[in-house]
Amino acid sequence: MSGVSENRVLAGSPSTGEAARGGLIADVPRRALILLGLFAALLLVAPATVGDYLLSVMILVLYYAYLGLAWNVMMGFAGQFSLGHALYIGLGGYTAGALFVHYGLPPWFGMVVGAAVAAVMGGVIGALGFRFGVKGVYFALLTIAFAEFTRILFDHWGWVGASSGLYLPVEYRDTDDLWLLRGSATMFYYVILAMTAGAFILCHWLLQRRVGYYWQAIREDQEAAQTLGIDVFRYKMIAVMLSAAMTAIGGVFYAFYYNNLYPETIFSMHRSIELMLGVIIGGIGTLFGPILGAIVLTTLGEMLTGLTEDLGLDGIKQMSYGVALLVIIVYRPGGLWPWLRRRLGLEKPR
């Protein structure tokens, strides 16, 4: 796990006083701002320069980057390990999807409700775990248990389609309907781009505030943080509930982009592992790490999917993910982003 110094936007995180005086980007090196601006500009013009397949891959990259940023709030910032984050993806997707199918309510309304439902569920898991002193791997097992229980429940709940799945109606329109999230891949690309940018800015802002420093103190040494007077239970609950709500919003995007939901896939542990692998590869506790990890992992996955189809090598994708993770743990335990940041000279001068 990276230390406090790794939790800086491209370069560094100012003290609370400096953040208050200088704003969000006051201490970010000029080179970092230029590269970030170029990267943002490239993403903005991408739909006009790439084909349909590459656009779909970029949507997937941004989707996993968004989910990685959401998971990183809980694990990377506050140090609470979750292996059941697919629970919140499913709750968000099913809530918004069911409200849309049964009552015609727009996804933006369902997004708010789904985020609230996921936050409450995260609060229940957090309260049970933290009040009874469940930590580390045991807390991770608790998150898996809730995800599996919810999968079984939804697999037998007729109102959401049970095991047959929930299907959202697809309407072919000449124009994009942003209000109902019905439209072209380009529209969905800009929606997930805005979501990812918003999550990135929110995480940056949080790390500049007291809550961010409290999270890092809890992550590094919970007992020491408690001795200093930090309300450990309260701030861990904030991290869990915020991460759950953000993840649920990603689930709403998934539901309306793919137009179908199955309990055995959306609540599966495999989905939880996929969203956290990118963060581990990119750099846990960093801001740009989840984005870099999503780029690397999604690109690798698409290449291996094509190889599997051409050569019939079943299982090579999962094996390659395991190898990639092993290489990162052995040679770059802090993730790719801290190493790349140093190579690019984006460290803040001391």
Written account of the structure:
- The protein is mainly α and 350 residues long.
- 70% of the residues lie in helices and 1% in strands.
- The chain has 15 helices and 2 strands.
- The chain has helices at 16-22, 30-45, 52-77, 86-103, 107-131, 136-155, 185-207, 210-220, 222-227, 232-258, 263-266, 269-282, 289-311, 316-331, 336-343, and strands spanning 166-167, 260-261.
- Helix 3 crosses helix 13 (289-311) and helix 5 packs antiparallel against helix 10 (232-258).
- The radius of gyration is 20 Å and the shape is globular.
Short overview:
Helix content is 70%, strand content 1%. The chain is an all-alpha fold and 350 residues long.
